[in-house]
Write a structure and sequence with these properties.
The structure is a single chain. It contains 8 helices and 5 strands. It is an alpha/beta fold. It has one domain: Rossmann fold (3-Layer(aba) Sandwich). The chain has a 5-stranded parallel sheet, with helices on both faces. The chain is globular, with a radius of gyration of 16 Å. The two termini are about 30 Å apart. Bound molecules: ligand Z5A. The site of ligand Z5A has 24 residues, from helix 1, helix 4 and helix 8. Ligand Z5A binds next to helix 1, helix 4 and helix 8.
């Protein structure tokens, strides 16, 4: 499926404890060092309504969402996020960096929960309609990522899943990266944090050089 690619749209993906927050800070510093305006956002979330939907998705206190509900909540949040945050920013010439985007639905609800990838692709086409120019995938063995997350406080509903769920999520991401090798930069996130960040920033700089500031 070919969807329009936005040259200034970058996404960050990875499993539990991959180190997205750390890399995000390095990307922000790289943009700021070049004086480039960028919007930093996240999924699920990125708008007040989408943040409320995030709360529903990750809530551990009420009735658990079914896989289909989880998927549709992710896309409901994304529909709002794309139209009210991402597209307006891109249209005014800003760069956009999103901590997770549609690939997360393929990995978590497709790979992890076993939902049909064609169904997800249909939602992507109808509800989202855009893809990033660059997706940085922080790939880390499940056990290493989970070890990093231990001791970080109460787990949300998805964080409370079992290891085999996270193995399927990881594989889901790797399959996406293999199928769209031109868009993905897969980074070995078991390296030291500064090495991971340096690789991410180098790839971002190459994209900036290609897309123009
Ligand atoms: N979700 C979904 O199911 N479907 C969808 O469509 C979407 C999302 C969009 C929330 O995402 C949940 O939503 C997520 C997927 C689901 N499920 N879960 N679980 P999130 O991105 O907000 O939550 P998260 O995945 O739990 O991200 P996080 O907590 O922000 O983790 P992180 O950013 O990857 O990790 P970090 O905070 O940067 O690092 C974790 C720790 O590791 C921290 O102590 C660091 O200091 C340490 N760290 C980081 N890098 C390193 C290295 N390289 N070495 C050693 N230690 C490190």
């Amino acid at each position: 499926m070919t969807l329009p690619i936005h040259a200034r749209f970058v996404t960050l993906e990875g499993g539990e404890g991959a180190g997205k927050s750390t890399v995000l800070a390095a990307l922000r510093a790289a943009f700021e060092a070049q004086g480039i305006a960028a919007v930093y956002t996240r999924e699920p979330g990125g708008t007040p309504l989408a943040e409320q939907i995030r709360g529903l998705m990750l809530d551990t206190h009420h009735e658990p969402a079914t896989a289909e509900t989880e998927l549709l909540l992710a896309f409901a949040a994304r529909a709002q996020h794309v139209r009210t945050t991402i597209l307006p920013a891109l249209e005014r010439g800003a760069w956009v960096v999103s901590d997770r985007f549609t690939d997360a639905s393929y990995a978590y609800q497709g790979g992890g929960r076993g939902l049909d990838a064609d169904f997800i692709a249909d939602l992507e086409r109808r509800v989202v309609g855009i893809r990033p120019a660059l997706t940085l995938l922080l790939d880390v063995p499940v056990e290493v990522g989970l070890q990093r997350m231990r001791g970080r406080g109460a787990a949300d509903r998805i964080e409370s899943e079992r290891n085999d769920f996270f193995e399927r999520v990881r594989q889901g991401y790797r399959d996406r990266a293999e199928a769209e090798a031109g868009r993905f930069e897969v980074i070995d996130a078991s390296q030291a944090a500064d090495a991971v960040a340096a690789q991410a920033v180098a790839r971002l700089r190459a994209l900036i050089a290609q897309a123009g500031r």
